[in-house]
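can u pls check wat happens w/ iron/sulfur cluster
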Amino acid sequence: MTYHIITIGCQMNKSDSERIAACLEDMGYRESENRNQADLVVLTTCGVRQSAEDRIYGLVPKIKKENKDVKILLTGCLSERKDVIKRLKEKIDIWLPVNQISNLKQVLIDSGFKNSEIEACDYLKIKPKYTSKFSAFVPIGNGCDNFCAYCVVPYARGREVYRDVEEILNEVESLIKKGYKEIILIAQNVNSYYSEITNYKLQITNKSQILNSKYLRFFDLLKLVNSIPGDFWVRFASSHPKDMSDDLILAILECEKVCKHIHLPAQSGDNGVLKSMNRKYKIEHYLDLIRKIKDNTKSKLPVALTTDIIVGFPGETEEQFGNTIKLFEKVKYDMAYIARYSPRYGTAAEKIKDNVGADEKKRREGELMKVLRKTALKNNQKYSGRTVKVLAEGKNKKGILFGKTETNKTVKFWGDKNFVGKFVSVNITAVEDFSLSGDLQK
Ligand code: SF4
C-alpha cells in the first residue's frame, strides 16, 4: 500500500503531515511521489484563507478523476467544518479531525484499511518523518486558547497543550547529532509555552542556571535549546504580542543560536479593529515591544521584524486602515503577510457583516505593500558589502543556489549543489526589497 500527502498552509500543517507520514510508514505504507499511483492520498488542509479552502475544492475531484481507486483522507482545519463535509461527502473517504491525528491507525482500521497493531499515541509523541535533512520542525505545543474573532484554529485544533521539555530537548539533541542545522520550534502561540518542573527538569535547569520558579517558560526553553552543543540555528513561530515578555525578548537577543528574526503578528494598527478582532492588546503595547527589541539589539545588523496583517476586517474604516499604514511606517518591517479578510465558517467574525468590498481590500493590501517594499529595501541596503552566514537550502531552476540568513533574508548565489544543507559565507553584492544576492566566500 502506498500513500501521498498534500499539505496546504502553515508550518504546523507541515509538521502534522510529517507525523501522519510516520504513522503510515509504521503501518507498512510506502510513500509514493505520484498522487495518481497512491492507494491513499492525505490532504492536510488549511481554513485560514478562502484561497487555501478553494484549492481543496478544485483538487479533490481532480484526484478522484485521475486515480479512480484512490482513497482520500482529509485532515486539518477543514476536517470538521459541516459545510465542507456536506460539499465533499461523496468524494472524501475518511475525515480525520486534527485533534484525532493520534488515533490515525484506529481510524484507518475502522475504515477498512490495512490491519496493524493498534497503538493510539499522544499526537506530540509521534516521531515524525522529517521531510528535510537539515531543517526540522519541532512542535512544542498544539491548539490555541485565544479565539481571535476571525480564526478557525481554536475550533480545529482545540485548546492549548504543551509538550514536556525533556522530550523537546531529546528530539532536538538527536536532530543535531544527525547533522540538522535548523530547528524550528512551533506552536500556535509559542509564548504561552510552559512545562511543570520535576526533579529531572530541575537538574537540567540547574545545570544551565536559568530558572527559579514552578514552571519552565518559553524563554527558558530557548535558553536550554541554545545550550545544546553544535553549530545550528533555532527559529520559532508563532508569537502572540500579548504574551511576549521582556525575558523572552532578552533571551532571543542574547542566545547566539536563536535567529535574529521576530515574527510578531500585529493583524491591525488600530485599537478599535484589534478589539473587534479580540486580540487582547493595544497597539501601544505592540509598539512598546518593538521599541524594546530595537533598543536591546546588540548585533551588527538589526533584528528582522515581520508580521501578519488582515485588511478589510468587518467595519474597518479608512481612518482605521490609516493606522495600519502608520504602524508599517513606524516599525519598518522586513516582510509582512497581508491577507484580505474573508469570513471563516464558525468564527465570531462570521456573524459581522463583511462590509469592506473586494476592490477596497485589494487597494488596502496594495497600499501596505508599497510601504513594505520601501522599508524592506532600506533594511536590506544595510547588508550591502557585508559577509553573512547563510544556510543553503536548494538550487532554483536557473541553477542558482538560495538560502536564508539568520534574519530570514533570502540570499541567491552561485555554487555547487553540495553546499545545500550547509552553512556558507556569502558576500552581499546586490539587494532588492525581498532578497539579497552575493558571492560565495571560499
Ligand atoms: S492566536 Fe488567534 S490567530 Fe493565532 S491561532 Fe490563536 S486564535 Fe488563531
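The CA atoms of residues 18 and 130 lie 6 Å apart.
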